[in-house]
Amino acid sequence: MDIKAPLKESQPRIPEPYATKVFYYSQTDALAHIARGKKWTWSEVRPDVIVGFVPTTNAMNIAGALGAYLSLYKEVHGSGSECPFPGTQGAWTAKHSDTSSYILARFEIHTALSAKTSGGVYNIANGDITSWQKKWPGITRWFELKGTNPAPSAQSPEEFYNSHRQQWNQMVKKYGLKKEKEEGFWFLHGCLKGEFDRYYDLTEARKSGFDETIDTVESYIKTFEKMRKAKHIP
Helix, strand, or coil here: 44? Predict the structure, then answer.
């Protein structure tokens, strides 16, 4: 299937055999069926990769896994160390649009309260088009690391974590962390391998009257600050 960015709500679903693996399709079909003849309506909100924090394990938690990885990387290699991007060269430059949990929540409230959005389908994202090349230096800087270009020899975050479990366990005790392991490396791995442009068209969200934005690197930093306050990272 030819995927062309910017991604719009009007673009067709992915074809079989992949479509049956996307549980969102079954969810929206079920809602559409249940809503027939009812007085209430519903809207479909489509975020891109969500950047946020919850105090419980969240399998699709890119910031959680990334925060744990970079915290451990700093502990092992030291403050000021170079930290190569642990993904592919194609993913390094591919354009995408992350979705802050703050922006997502604000937009969902907007759709729930606005008559304009009733029954609509909406993409939602931070508002900027980014890439790992753009955001990696800013993300790693918060951990006092120097983010650099992809390196063929770099371990994946999961491989690095697994090879330094002892150090992570020591960090849990040293800093009084509440979790011994951060789940979601498989999801982060996928985000570090995506080699095609997939940024969103936000025209429909803007037409609905929602114009809030947040800088993507800032959304990661705000999330890491919440993780630190909750003792999930040092």
Answer: strand
DSSP 200: B
What is the phi-psi region of residue 115: left when phi exceeds 0, alpha when psi lies from -120 to 50, beta otherwise? Answer: alpha
Query: How far is residue 97's CA from residue 197's CA, in Å, rounded to a whole number?
Result: 9
Domain boundaries, the chain: 19-229
CA–CA dist 86, 149 (Å, integer): 9
Q: Could you tell me which residues come within 8 angstroms of residue 158 by beta carbon, excluding any fewer than 6 positions away?
A: 185, 186, 188, 189
Contact present, 203 and 81 (Cβ < 8 Å): no
Q: Residues near 75 by Cβ (< 8 Å), separated by ≥ 6?
A: 167, 171, 234
**Which CATH superfamily is 19-229 part of?**
NAD(P)-binding Rossmann-like Domain (3.40.50.720)
Tokens of 87: 């993904």
* Omega of the bond leading into 6 within 30 degrees of 0 (cis): yes
Which pLDDT tens digit goes with each residue over 104-149?
999 999 999 988 888 899 999 999 999 999 999 999 999 999 999 9
**Residue 123 bridge partners (DSSP):** 46
